[in-house]
TrEMBL record:
Stated name of the protein: Uncharacterized conserved protein YeaO, DUF488 family
Superkingdom of this protein's organism: Bacteria
Taxonomy of the source species: Bacteria, Bacillati, Bacillota, Bacilli, Bacillales
Amino acid sequence: MQVNRKRVYEQPENEDGVRVLVDRVWPRGLSKQKAAVDHWLKELAPSAELRKWFQHDPEKFPDFKQKYIQEIESDQTKREHIGKLKEIIEESESVTLVYGAKDTEHNQAVVLQEWLAGQD
């Protein structure tokens, strides 16, 4: 299973494979054509409360990661969307989790990628 991550604002490439947007809100100023998103799993994104608390503050990232994983593992809707994401991954050679955050190391796609790797 190859799961990559990339900012949705970066140029789509063939190597991206299936592009899955994991943000709750559509990326500002980006058309659907330019985003080249195959699936939008907005329900898999962190809750609005968690997102507002985190505010992409790198110092809060360890706590954000823990809280987001708790959401993934306890929220029924998120579990259903994890199931859909796993189906996409199983059916594809390559999957890229795309996100809008400017910080490439402290965002939900990083947490999802690591969490999925630990599910093997």
